[in-house]
């Protein structure tokens, strides 16, 4: 990952390939947001803004030669949009502008970032945004992977992220600022790891190799233990959900527990993640168009794994246990059928009406297991329903559950800049998932599809404090990159889950 340091160098004097400075929209044009660049340079930039195509708008990044007045080679102008009423910029605005800039720095060795960074929150936002934007997934390119072996293909296919960045801040020696920057680096590494798992091709990433990836991620991390139940253990242990969904694939399911247990935990949090390494729909098979995006159907489990590892690296005083519900949903000869009745861990029965509603089935096993283990609170995260995207689009995730926990998740999300919105779980809709033969059916009418799925999950947590995060749309970006978000896996959820755990740490 990109190396990051804090420094108090003057932006004029800093020797780097690129110097990143912010622009803003004002009532009479464009302002360059810097009190350290020479005034004549600022005036020149601001007056030439129209010719340069610089408006100061958000997500606008322009690169120009730095000129003789600056020690850097290239000047990168990144837009912040309009100032808030109080004259500042929201931290999420800084985070996105930093990330939009570093996305344009791929292939470079060094850059200095001179965005507003005069308190811990701003330093966190700028550092996180810069590192989150400095991401590339070039693993599968035989040339043009930034190796430098073929410059033309590198230019076309993708380069490695900028190697090192300096964040310019007057607080470079301040202890809290340093801690903020170190935390940002751990958070960004966690988000990158989740993106990497999502982007990994499903012929390589299947339940057994995901379990291996969990062991690898936890290796050498203090107080983290990984235990794996394989397909045979799941079947004999009564995990009927994972078993049923996994049986259509030649590559059997796994339930992976990733437990971080600090010495004297002040709270115990469980995180349950949907890890369908590929969702073909099973016998209720999906249409061909767009099916490739279903390699991302394990994004919840990836976020959980990354969060547990990050909590450990941050030495949080909270016990966090991840439950990765891993299966491949395939229509093999032994696949489950619509009309099958299965028994979830703990004894409740489910009539499988649609094998494409597989996520809730594997999550049921994980949720019952988590509740049984006795945590203070259970969160689950899943690319659960297409209906989530119908309701909220592909940038805003949904959260539902017991009122307090749901609101706590929403507040945690707001603090990180991740977009979440609360959704209800209306009792009246429970009739939607009534089964004629079993305790509950795994699918219902199209209307309220996201809530039907949430209500299904609720059946397995009872009254336990709980929230369900549906990240179906935001987990995978099949459009263009924006802000600090690349195309492909986004790593959404990691920052919210981690903020939630941090909140529980300071609450006690
Ligand atoms: N993995 C999908 C949900 C999904 C859809 C995630 C699009 C990301 C993008 C899930 O397993 C699924 O297929 N859900 C069905 C449920 C239905 C059959 C009740 C859906 O939403 O259509
Ligand atoms: Mn499905
Ligand atoms: Zn699915």
TrEMBL record:
Q: Which GO terms describe its biological process?
A: proteolysis
The cross-references to HAMAP family, in alphabetical order and at most eight, read: Cytosol_peptidase_M17 (MF_00181)
Name of the molecule in the record = Probable cytosol aminopeptidase
Q: Does the keyword Heme apply?
A: no
Q: Where in the cell is it found?
A: Cytoplasm
InterPro entries recorded: Leucine_aapep/pepB (IPR011356), Macro_dom-like (IPR043472), Peptidase_M17_C (IPR000819), Peptidase_M17_leu_NH2_pept (IPR023042), Peptidase_M17_N (IPR008283)
- What's the record's note on cofactor binding? Binds 2 manganese ions per subunit.
At the highest ranks, the source species' classification is: Bacteria, Bacillati, Actinomycetota, Actinomycetes, Micrococcales
What keywords does the record list, in alphabetical order? Aminopeptidase, Cytoplasm, Hydrolase, Manganese, Metal-binding, Protease
Instruction: Give me the residues that bind Mn(2+) 1, please.
Output: 279, 356, 358
UniProt source species: Promicromonospora soli
> Which cofactors must be present for this protein to function?
Mn(2+)
One Pfam family, short name: Peptidase_M17
Primary enzyme class: hydrolase
Main subcellular location of this protein, as a coarse class: cytoplasm
Query: Which family, according to UniProt?
Result: Belongs to the peptidase M17 family.
The role this protein plays is: Presumably involved in the processing and regular turnover of intracellular proteins. Catalyzes the removal of unsubstituted N-terminal amino acids from various peptides.
Q: Which reaction does it catalyse?
A: Release of an N-terminal amino acid, Xaa-|-Yaa-, in which Xaa is preferably Leu, but may be other amino acids including Pro although not Arg or Lys, and Yaa may be Pro. Amino acid amides and methyl esters are also readily hydrolyzed, but rates on arylamides are exceedingly low; Release of an N-terminal amino acid, preferentially leucine, but not glutamic or aspartic acids
Molecular-function annotations in GO: manganese ion binding; metalloaminopeptidase activity
Q: Where is the Cytosol aminopeptidase domain?
A: 354-361
Q: Which gene encodes it?
A: pepA
């Amino acid at each position: 990952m990109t190396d990051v340091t804090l420094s108090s160098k003057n932006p004029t004097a800093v020797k780097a390939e690129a110097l990143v400075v912010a622009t803003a929209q004002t009532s009479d044009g464009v302002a360059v947001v810097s009190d350290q660049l020479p005034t004549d340079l600022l005036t020149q930039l601001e007056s030439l803004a129209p010719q340069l195509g610089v408006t100061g708008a958000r997500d606008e990044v322009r690169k120009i030669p730095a000129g003789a007045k600056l020690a850097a080679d290239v000047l990168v102008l990144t837009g912040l949009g309009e100032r808030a009423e109080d004259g500042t910029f929201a931290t999420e605005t800084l985070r996105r502008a930093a990330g939009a800039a570093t996305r344009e720095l791929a292939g470079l060795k060094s850059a200095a970032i001179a965005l507003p960074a005069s308190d811990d929150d701003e330093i966190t936002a700028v550092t996180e945004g810069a590192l989150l934007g400095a991401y590339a997934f070039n693993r599968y390119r035989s040339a043009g992977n930034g190796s430098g072996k073929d410059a033309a293909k590198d230019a076309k296919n993708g380069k490695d992220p900028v190697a090192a960045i300096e964040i310019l801040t007057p607080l470079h020696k301040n202890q809290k600022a340093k801690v903020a920057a170190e935390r940002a680096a751990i958070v960004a590494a966690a988000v990158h790891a989740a993106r990497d798992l999502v982007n990994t091709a499903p012929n390589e990433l299947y339940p057994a190799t995901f379990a291996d990836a969990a062991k690898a991620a936890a290796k050498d991390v203090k107080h983290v233990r990984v235990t794996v139940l394989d397909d045979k253990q799941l079947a004999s242990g009564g995990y009927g959900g994972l078993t049923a969904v996994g049986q259509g694939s030649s590559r059997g399911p796994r339930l992976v527990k990733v437990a971080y247990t600090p010495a004297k935990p002040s709270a115990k949090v469980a995180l349950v993640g949907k890890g369908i390494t590929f969702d073909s729909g099973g016998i209720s098979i999906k249409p061909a168009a767009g099916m490739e995006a279903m390699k991302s159907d394990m994004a919840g489990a990836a976020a959980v794994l990354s969060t547990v590892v990050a909590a450990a690296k941050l030495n949080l005083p909270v016990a966090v246990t991840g439950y990765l519900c891993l299966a491949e949903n395939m229509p093999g000869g032994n696949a489950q059928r619509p009309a099958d009745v299965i028994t979830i861990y703990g004894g409740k029965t489910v009539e499988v009406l649609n094998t494409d509603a597989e996520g809730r089935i594997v999550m049921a096993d994980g949720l019952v297991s988590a509740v049984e283990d006795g945590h203070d609170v259970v969160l689950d995260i899943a690319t659960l329903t297409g209906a989530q995207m119908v309701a909220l689009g592909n940038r805003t995730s949904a959260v539902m559950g017991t009122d307090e926990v749901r609101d706590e998740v929403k507040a945690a999300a707001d603090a990180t800049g991740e977009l979440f919105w609360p959704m209800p779980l209306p009792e009246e809709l429970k009739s939607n998932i009534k089964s004629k033969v079993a305790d509950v059916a795994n699918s219902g009418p199209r209307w309220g599809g996201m809530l039907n799925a949430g209500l299904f999950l609720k059946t397995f947590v009872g009254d336990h404090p709980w929230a369900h995060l549906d990240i179906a749309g935001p987990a995978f970006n099949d459009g263009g990159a924006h802000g600090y978000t690349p195309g492909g896996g986004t790593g959404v959820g990691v920052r919210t889950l981690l903020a939630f755990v941090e909140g529980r740490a300071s609450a006690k």
